[in-house]
Amino acid sequence: MVTKRKLGIIAGGGILPQILINHCIQTNRDYFVLAIENNADKAVFSPNIPHKWIRIGQAGTGFKTMADEKVAEIVMIGTIHRPSFADLVPDLRTTAFFAKIGFKSLGDDGILRALITEIESENMRVVGIHEVMPELLVKKGLLTKTKPDKQALADIERGIEVALTLGRLDVGQSVIVQQGLVLGAEGIEGTDKLIERCGTYQRKGAGGILVKLRKPQQDMRIDLPTIGTTTIENLHKAGMRGIAVHAGNALIVNEPEVIKLADKYGMFITGITPTEDNK
């Protein structure tokens, strides 16, 4: 029997780090967590969870820790908030890394790709959470009882067009469209704030649609689009009526509960492929 290689988890905020830790425990996979200060949930890290807390600026410290722990594969998962100046003060290794990549000239995706290259130079392989837990990927097709109507399908097509264009510019993953009108696109604030903001812009009639896609150039190993029960609650609160999310390229956290909640609110969730007719 082949032993699974030790997994390093670089943990930001949200529920996904906890889900991945639970998966490692349930499958008896050896693991170690680097928890990012001011992002990862402190409640997750009881004494029996092997972990160390680091600032965002301590990547060099993190590399050494992962090497000392004999980690073979690394997953970067969870949300990262805009860091404070104190968070960013770099250790020596991180200073050298920033100097080498010229990080001011890169977007978020460029910095993360450069970080992957740096990690893999230490003989550790970076993998996506979908490679460890493929069941988290969004399935293609309608997931809910409620179906998108003709207007919703047109809004989805418009959302795909805008999301792909903005994604190529490394702007964001999400767009909200209502009755042909683009209410807003995701910036640094994230999807939840986008929903809240666009809820105030809606006109009367059929509510808005959230379209959430992986950026065309985005590495599947980092920052995949993600939806969960919070997404559904926020959309319902804002008076919106559905989600179109990138099938096979996005994550759905706790799928049964997400679908159950969407059905309760009469909302639709559909897994789409942007290169095809989504009808």
How big a fraction of the residues is strand? Answer: 15-25%
Number of extended strands: 13
CATH superfamily of the largest domain: LpxI C-terminal catalytic domain
Strand order of the largest sheet: 6-13-11-9-7-8
Stretches with pLDDT under 50, minimum 5 residues: none
Tell me the Rg in angstroms.
19 Å
CATH C-level class of the largest domain is Alpha Beta
How would you characterize the largest beta sheet? 6 strands, mixed
Instruction: Give the total of domains.
Output: 2
- Determine the mean pLDDT: 87
Large-scale geometry: elongated
The CATH topology of the largest domain is given as: Cytidine Deaminase, domain 2
Please identify, by name, the CATH architecture of the largest domain.
Answer: 3-Layer(aba) Sandwich
Number of helices, counting only DSSP H or I runs of 4 residues or more: 10
Indicate the percent of residues in helices: 25-40%
Could you describe the 3D structure shown?
- 36% of the residues lie in helices and 19% in strands.
- It is α/β, with parallel strands linked by helices and 279 residues long.
- Helix 1 links the parallel strand 1 (7-11) and strand 2.
- Helix 8 (191-199) runs parallel beside helix 9 (229-237) and helix 9 runs parallel beside helix 10 (255-265).
- The protein is elongated.
- The model has no long low-confidence stretch (mean pLDDT 87).
Write the layout of secondary structure elements.
Layout: E1 7-11, H1 16-26, E2 31-36, E3 51-54, H2 59-68, E4 73-77, H3 85-88, H4 92-101, H5 108-120, E5 125-126, H6 129-132, E6 141-142, H7 150-168, E7 174-178, E8 181-185, H8 191-199, E9 209-212, E10 226-227, H9 229-237, E11 242-246, E12 251-252, H10 255-265, E13 268-272
Parallel strand pairs: 1-2, 1-4, 2-3, 4-5, 9-11, 10-12, 11-13
Antiparallel strand pairs: 6-13, 7-8, 7-9
Helix pairs in contact: 8-9, 9-10
